[in-house]
Amino acid sequence: MDGPTLTLFLVQIGLVLAIPLCMAKLFEKLALSPLVVELLCGVLLGPSVFGMFAPNLFARVFPALGRATQAREAVTELGLLLFVFMAGLDLQPKRLRSLGPPIFWTSFLGILAPLVLGVGSVLLWPQFWRNKAQSNVPMLALFVGTILSISALPVIARILMDLRLMKTELGVIVMSAAMLDDLAGWGLFAVILSNFGGEGHSGRNWWASLVTVLLVFGLILSLSNNRIQRAVGWLNLPKDTLQLKLTFLVLITAAIFSEVVGTHATLGAFLAGVALGRIPDARQLAHKSFYQTTTGIFATLYFVSIGLKTNFVANFDLLLVAFVLLIACAGKISGVFLGARLGGKKPHEALIVALGMNARGAVGIVLTTVALEYGLIDQRIFVALIIMALATSVLSAVGIKHLLGSGQVQHNAEEESEKESKVLPYAH
Predict the structure, then answer these.
(1) Is 311 within 8 Å of 383 (Cβ atoms)?
(2) What is the secondary structure of 22-53 as a DSSP string?
């Protein structure tokens, strides 16, 4: 990399990191989450605002092609892998051992209702979506249903901790059901990408895609404490060196394997986090090694860069945004509410659970961005889904606070909740 290219690369990275810092300070009193601030900063730095008011300068600072842009995008992709790895790290399946009717019905109907609504809305009105890949309407339908059915575990966890609900019965139901939703959503998404193929990728039939995804899940999740301990003994490295290198090696290996078999590197990174998260020592060491760097730098680079890729103004369709937000909220809230009621919860409690699981947040944004890169959706649908993910996260927090009212929140395990908030990726 020559001098001018390196300078341009550093300028891009500096702007992407500095602008969110300034904006966060400017809007400090609004208490906006970093996710919202960073996406807004991406819109400001991208073609939506910067490119509109100063197109020549924007083209020089953020050129569409060139080695500096390629280097920034490579760093951004690494940030994506680290982010989903940290998200998987906090997805602890051991909490699901106490599965009962409320959790089962909440998770099952919480996935089924929005999935059916999403798939049906695309199949019944394909022209309304006007996707460029009209030959892949069934695949688009399944993707929309999937993205509407998942929940954003980090966002939900933060909402529950802010309201001191994490250790309550309702909190356990919401978190456990959201974990199942996340695993099912990632699995469905991997099957879609494996089957669809996209630009530069060869698609498979449904059975081959399903078998491939199950293979990826099985092999990566088979990581155990004994296997890791044997690797530690064989490598015989100093403890501090081992913490960083071995964890990163597991992440990269899982991502490479997942990408090679056609299920996208993000699934491998996510499952590597889930696998290591089941081992207390490994989970703690991974947090110690990666948490601050991932949330402070790499996550910022990734979420700001989303705004650099798309013109949100030119691709904003008010009717589509409103429609997507409507079916997202209607499907998730109604499905979860009915599930919680079937599980024996009172109407007021069921509504709190439904609002909690309605948040899509960062997870929805990650999957939507990957779908855009694969050519499964166009930029118009991309913008609508990004806005939906942000809006549902805000609505969840506001809705739960309104239902609970002041003084009605249980104050169990305040210290433990605060401790957990320090390790949940992008929950704040």
Answers:
(1) no
(2) HHHHHTGGGT--HHHHHHHHHHHHSTTTHHHH
pLDDT in tens, the chain (428 residues): 788 899 999 999 999 999 988 888 887 777 677 777 888 898 899 898 999 999 999 999 999 888 998 999 899 888 888 888 887 776 665 655 555 677 888 889 999 999 999 999 999 988 888 765 455 788 888 889 989 988 876 667 666 766 677 667 777 788 778 877 877 877 787 777 776 655 544 455 555 656 666 766 676 666 655 565 565 555 555 555 666 677 788 888 888 887 777 667 877 888 888 777 777 777 777 777 778 888 788 888 888 888 888 888 888 999 999 999 999 999 999 999 999 888 888 888 889 889 888 888 777 787 888 888 878 888 899 999 988 988 887 788 778 877 776 444 444 434 444 444 444 444 44
Exposed, middle or buried by CB within 10 Å (0-12, 13-18, 19+), for 405? exposed
DSSP secondary structure string for all residues of 306-361:
HHHH--TTTT--HHHHHHHHHHHHHHHHHHHHHHHHHTT--HHHHHHHHHHHT--H
Angle at 76 between CA 50 and CA 270, to 5 degrees: 135
Rounded CA-CA distance 357/341 in Å is: 15
SS (H, E, C) 154-182: HHHHHHHHHCCCCCCHHHHHHHHHHHHHH
Are 397 and 174 in contact by the 8 Å Cβ rule? The answer is: no
Residue 197 DSSP one-character state? -
Question: Is 83:293 a contact under the CB 8 Å cutoff?
Answer: no
Q: What gap in Å lies between CA 188 and CA 357, rounded to an integer? A: 18
Dist CA 250 CA 141 (whole Å): 34
Using an 8 Å Cβ cutoff, are 380 and 321 in contact?
no
**Strand residue runs (E) in 47-180:** none
CA distance 105 to 341: 9
Per-residue b/e over 205-239, b at no fewer than 16 CB within 10 Å?
Answer: eeeebbebbeebbebbbebeeeebeeeeeeeeeee
Round to whole Å and give the CA distance between 161 and 356: 12
